[in-house]
């Protein structure tokens, strides 16, 4: 787990701002669910034999009532619980998004910590492949907004339960014929969750996995049609994709479309966003049956990729730095700064140094003003104040131009100090 400090926290705020703006354009609304949920929610929702439930969850017993609780390892189960609990689908489907910390006890990797952060989007109550495509387009639009490149889309269809059942039987029979070549983890999962074996990263098993029966070959007409709708919409919008028959995702709740956005620039753990359809999860956790589809991205990984690609993230800087030569000017200066802030101007006020030697020299104050990134310095000098004025000096255009403004007419000149003006 790690702290996120300024100025790095500004990169997070920038990303979150981009996401909020984009979600609004796609008509997705924010939902916020608890960090702690009953352990049973994740066991039922994610699957008992998934890595997350078996190895990675931070679970504990409530000392007051003995209830088994878990720090959320992902957000979809909690969103689904909230939707079911509050009967949110009674008047039709909902488009939702969330941001927040998740917790998994796993080996820390580049861009992944045991407390990590996800941003996700969920469309609940919609059965059609057009919503699968909409969510993929939403993620793809975010990469464009952020200026990310070299991110590829991989898609697959897991079909419906009866189709997976037939494939499962064929897959188990195939793997049993090659059991001597399976590693211990694959043998353990052979009869409990064989589909996850296809996602193995063990180089020694790649040839066996490549030749395994493909789930897509067991899909019926309806499942194939659903998948074709998704692909046709992506094609119509110029989004490149590749079918990856080994793409199964890490949770048991998925059916039909699954997808991942992958990069080669973050090492072996290259997935920065993944999701799919989960039409049975709402009923599975006790709600009324309803279709749903969604995705989640790893914030740390996306920010790491932005850094890797050298993408420029605008710095957060004040419009104005207030230079105050004498502490006697503080009452008038601060009153002026408050009026500027009320007009939307971002202001950083100089603070007296810890040495206790007054407000510090003009030279040191201008040095701090320059380091702040502010475009202007407002100098509250005694001569200017005696005339009811404040001196404004340009810091960024190289001219060093100086003008005076009247303290009694802040509203008339405040907008000239803003970067956006």
Q: What can be said about this structure in brief?
A:
Keywords: Aminoacyl-tRNA synthetase, ATP-binding, Cytoplasm, Ligase, Nucleotide-binding, Protein biosynthesis. Homodimer. With 421 residues, the protein is α+β, with helices and mostly antiparallel strands.
Protein structure class: alpha+beta
Number of structural domains: 2
Helix count equals 15
Strand order of the largest sheet: 1-5-6-11-10-9-7-8
Uncertain parts: none
**What is the name of the CATH superfamily of the largest domain?**
Bira Bifunctional Protein, Domain 2
Question: What is the total tally of β strands?
Answer: 16
Classify the beta-strand content into a percent band: 15-25%
What is the CATH top level name of the largest domain?
Alpha Beta
Helix content: 25-40%
The CA-CA distance between the termini, in Å, is: 41 Å
Compute the gyration radius: what is it? 28 Å
Q: Give the averaged pLDDT, no decimals.
A: 90
Structure description:
The longest helix has 18 residues. Helix 1 runs antiparallel to helix 5 and helix 5 runs parallel beside helix 9. This protein has 2 domains: 242 residues, BirA Bifunctional Protein, domain 2; 98 residues, Anticodon-binding domain (Rossmann fold), CATH 3.40.50. 35% of the residues are buried. The model has no long low-confidence stretch (mean pLDDT 90). By secondary structure, the protein is of the alpha+beta class. Helix 12 links the parallel strand 12 and strand 13.
């Amino acid at each position: 787990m790690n702290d996120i400090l300024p100025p790095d926290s500004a990169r997070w705020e920038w990303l979150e701002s981009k996401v909020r703006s984009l979600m609004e354009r796609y008509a997705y609304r924010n939902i916020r669910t608890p960090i702690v949920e009953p352990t049973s929610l994740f066991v039922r929702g994610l699957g008992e034999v998934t890595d997350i439930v078996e190895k990675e969850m931070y679970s504990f017993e409530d000392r007051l009532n003995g209830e088994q609780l878990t720090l959320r390892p992902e957000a979809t189960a909690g969103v689904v619980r909230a939707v079911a609990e509050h009967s949110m689908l009674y008047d039709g489907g909902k488009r939702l998004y969330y941001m927040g910390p998740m917790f998994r006890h796993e080996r820390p990797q580049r861009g992944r910590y045991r407390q990590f952060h996800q941003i996700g989007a969920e469309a609940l109550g919609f059965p059609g492949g057009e919503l699968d495509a909409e969510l993929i387009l939403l993620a793809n639009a975010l990469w464009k907004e952020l200026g990310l490149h070299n991110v590829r889309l991989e898609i697959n269809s897991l079909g419906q339960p009866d189709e997976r059942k037939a494939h499962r039987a064929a897959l188990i029979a195939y793997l049993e014929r090659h059991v001597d070549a399976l590693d211990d983890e694959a043998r353990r999962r052979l009869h409990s969750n064989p589909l996850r074996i296809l996602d193995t990263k063990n180089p020694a098993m790649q040839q066996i996995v490549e030749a395994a029966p493909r789930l897509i070959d067991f899909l019926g007409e309806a499942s194939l049609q659903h998948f074709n709708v998704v692909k046709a919409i992506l094609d119509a919008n110029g989004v490149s994709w590749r079918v990856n028959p080994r793409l199964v995702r890490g949770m048991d709740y998925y059916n039909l479309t699954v997808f991942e956005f992958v990069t080669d620039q973050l090492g072996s753990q290259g997935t920065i966003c993944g999701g799919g359809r989960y039409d049975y999860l709402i009923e599975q956790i006790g709600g009324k049956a309803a279709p749903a589809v969604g995705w989640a991205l790893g914030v740390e990984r996306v920010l790491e990729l932005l850094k890797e690609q050298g993408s420029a993230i605008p710095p957060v800087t004040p419009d104005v730095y207030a230079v105050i030569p004498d502490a006697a000017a503080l009452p008038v200066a601060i009153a002026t700064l408050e009026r500027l802030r009320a007009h939307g101007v971002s202001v950083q006020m100089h603070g007296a140094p810890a040495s206790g030697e007054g407000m510090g020299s003009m030279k040191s104050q201008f040095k701090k003003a320059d380091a702040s990134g502010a475009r202007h310095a407002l100098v509250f000098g005694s001569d200017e104040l005696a005339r009811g004025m404040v001196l404004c000096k340009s810091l960024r255009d190289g001219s060093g131009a100086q003008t005076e403004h009247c303290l009694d007419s802040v509203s008339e000149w405040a907008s000239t100090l803003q970067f956006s003006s």
